[in-house]
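Trying the structure run again after the queue cleared.
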Amino acid sequence: MNNITLIAVGALKNKALQNLAADYQKRIKPYARLQVLETPAASFSKAEKNQAKKREKEALEKVLHRYPKESIFILAEKGRLFDSLTFSDWLGEYDGRDLVLVIGGALGWEAEFAARYPSLSLSPLTFPHELARVVLLEQLYRGLLIKAGKEYHY
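Done. Tokens:
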């Protein structure tokens, strides 16, 4: 069984996305131990974007410090792309191991932070960070079901 921690910068504010995320989290439970953590999103003006990214990075580092032996991946536009079957195989490589997936905030990643971790991509398209969380949860569910031999992906 996979042990997956999903860390997201910022809370889901949109009710519809909250409901979808909760539904996928519930669906995932029989196939993986999933923990979802949120770190605060920094408020900012145009002139303060770099400081906001730094504050978000510092908040993430405090949480990531708790995972010294886990495999940590950030989600990024230019990260490794998968199709659903390959993503399922990739999840299988982490079966029984601890996997940490990190979704950044609206500002994206500070360059130094992003360089530290391997990255995965949901798509070459850019998604709002709240929607990216729901898409990731759905793909985790899909990948775990494929791995378990269940019919969900055709």
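The chain has five helices and five strands. Worth checking whether this holds up in the mutant runs.
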